[in-house]
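Hey L., structure's done. Input below.
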Amino acid sequence: MPRQADPELEHRILVAASRLWARGGEKALTMRAVAKAAGTTTPTVYERYRDREDIRRALRLKTRKELFASLTPTRNLTSAVQSYLKFALENTHGYEVLFDGVGKPPSLYEPWPSFNLMRERLAEQLGGSPRQHNRLMLAIWSLMHGTAMLIIRGGFDGALRTQAVQACLDAVENMLNVAKKKNALIQSRPKWPSNLILGEGEQSRAGNGNTVGKRKKKPNKRRP
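Output:
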């Protein structure tokens, strides 16, 4: 009888890859190591993924999808931040891979649905368009990510872990309260550049004039 396909194999491969990356970075993420950790063979891994970058991309997209699903039921930014931290602390390996090199290609070229959803939550509470709140959203995102990574890498536990999460939530609430007051936000630094676009897939730009999703044109072949 022909061997039946394992429906859980790809999931096992990605889980194994995330753990290897979290433990040893790029050097630890070899196709052979992934196969061994996933309980399969190296050729089987190659049948599904071209190389380790292909595995990392699949893992990023999987984690982004799961993070977005955890944020979708929220009704305001504070609850979204709480759900974000909860997800990060319950999915530490995938979360770390998701943000490794997030501001560089190819990750920068991909959509960031959770960033966009939270930016929409900001616009709903403060008014205006989501893009008008890019700087504030980046500040909140930096605060959330810093909190998550401090807990993960710092080994925060018990009361210390709880207080770190609550401090982050309090800070976000205070930022929102200040932002709701007209002209209360201090923006003494240069304005957000129009060519810095985050989270919008091929529309994204890193702020240096380079279009993220831009692809090189293939030379036209001469007809015989």
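The longest strand covers residues 196-197. The longest helix spans residues 158-180.

-- N.
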